[in-house]
């Protein structure tokens, strides 16, 4: 998904999102796609640094997992040490992946603004 965003392949990114995705904001799949396209239009290039915070496998198996990650996105290449000094969008995501027909898709998503300290 990271490569899809950096390469501006919105359709590839959206393929990983369930048609029935639920968000706490009440957004559907089309709303998420619009938000992503808007973010990509704001930048001539996109560089992302995701940092996995946790994975919680649910239901005693590998059918569903809740993933928490911090994501930094900027128009120029950067390292995580630069976060306090650059203009990057910093977000915390909690997403639920559910396996269906051998593929994991995002079925639930929550997000909020992050701080550089969230990347420690």
Structure in words:
A hairpin with a 2-residue loop joins strand 4 and strand 5. Strands 1-5-4-3-2 form a five-stranded mixed sheet. It has three helices and five strands, in the order H-H-E-H-E-E-E-E. With 120 residues, the chain is an alpha+beta fold. It is 19% helix and 44% strand.
**What Rg is obtained from the alpha carbons, in whole angstroms?**
15 Å
Shape descriptor reads globular
Judged by helices, strands and strand pairing, the structural class is alpha+beta
Residue stretches low in confidence (pLDDT < 50, at least 5 long) are none
For the secondary structure, the number of strands is 5
Number of helices: 3
Please outline the helices and strands.
Blueprint: H1 2-6, H2 10-14, E1 17-23, H3 29-41, E2 47-58, E3 64-74, E4 89-100, E5 103-113
Parallel strand pairs: 1-5
Antiparallel strand pairs: 2-3, 3-4, 4-5
